Structure formats: structure tokens, C-alpha cells
Amino acid sequence: MCIVAVLLLLQGLPAVAAELRDVVVKKEGERYHLTSTTYFDATQSQLFKTLIDFDKYPLFSSAFVEAENREPDERGRPQFYTRMEGCAMLFCKAYIRVGYLELQPEFDIVAIVDPEESNFAYSRERWQLIPEGEGTLMIYNFEMEPGFWVPPIIGPYVIKRALRSSGANAVNRIEAVALAYFPAE
């Protein structure tokens, strides 16, 4: 019910102006690397608050089945949990990521996954938020190594395609959530 209310709220917002300027996906050994540059018509503060609020991630993409903020770890670092689901041909998988955030407020977010609690051997994301004009430029770097079996022939192609398309589909929703939930100060 809550999701329906949020979707109705998001529909009432003015058209969003997020612009995905560049996306590069490569595979080196077992690791995948994605780098993207996106302009958002939202402030640095709005984007920062949105990206560290994992409870909002299901609003970015239907692939997020569950996502939540967790209590800080013993070192005081915010923790997160996400579970995504996806299928490519007959290969379906749940992707679980549990980890912590390293934050430089308003500017830099790094999410590091704990491979003991996730099904990734390695996963590190970084969002750099840079004011540009009336909005914010986000430079996003994602490096990951699956901790699960990937079909050797089609798997790398499918992962690269999914990384590229999921980001392109999410940018307008991220901006809409930032504007709806975190009004400019």
C-alpha cells in the first residue's frame, strides 16, 4: 500500500531532468567495472540523503525486492542490506549485498560489501557528488565480483547489459525520490 502512495506522489512531480551522460562497463578477469556520469536537477544534499537511504532503493528499480538501512557496526559505520532478483533466459538469481558505508557528507559515499554475508566475492560502489550549475553531477564507480556461478558463455554479456540498462532506467527515479523526499533547503 505504501508503494502505491509513493508512486502516486512521484507521478505528481514535475518532469525530471536527470541526464545519463556516460556509461562504461568492462570485465577484467572475474571483476566487472561500471563507471557512469549523470547530471541531476537536484542539490548535492538531496542526492546524498537519497543515496544513503537504502529504505528508498525499491523506489529506484523493481529489481530491489528488499532494501534497508541497518544499525551502525561496532565502528559506527552505517550498514545496509539489499536483495535484488533478476532473470536472464533461464538463469534466475537473488543478489544479496550486506555491507557498510564510508561517508564524507554531501560529497562522497562508498559502499563496501561484506562477502561473508553477501553472495558477492567483492563489491565496492562509490558515488561522488559535485555541484554543477543548478544541479549535481554524480560520478558513479561500481566494481564487483560475483560470488556465485555465472554461465561462462552468456553470463558476462548478460551482467554487462544488466549493469548498463539498470542504471539508465534508475536515474530519473533517483532524481524524483530526491526531490519528493528531501526538499531543497
Care to describe what's here?
- This protein has a domain of 117 residues: Alpha-D-Glucose-1,6-Bisphosphate, Chain A, domain 4 (2-Layer Sandwich).
- It starts with a helix and ends with a helix.
- Helix 2 crosses helix 4.
- 26% of the residues lie in helices and 44% in strands.
- It has an eight-stranded antiparallel beta sheet with strand order 1-2-8-7-6-5-4-3.
- It is globular and about 50 Å long.
- The chain is an alpha+beta fold.
List keywords for this structure.
185 residues; Alpha-D-Glucose-1,6-Bisphosphate, Chain A, domain 4; disordered N terminus; 4 helices; alpha+beta; 44% strand; single chain
Low-confidence stretches: 1-10
User: How many whole angstroms does the radius of gyration measure?
Assistant: 16 Å
What is the general shape? globular
The assigned structural class equals alpha+beta
Strand content: 35-45%
CATH class of the domain at 16-53 and 103-181: Alpha Beta
CATH structural fold name of the domain at 16-53 and 103-181: Alpha-D-Glucose-1,6-Bisphosphate, Chain A, domain 4
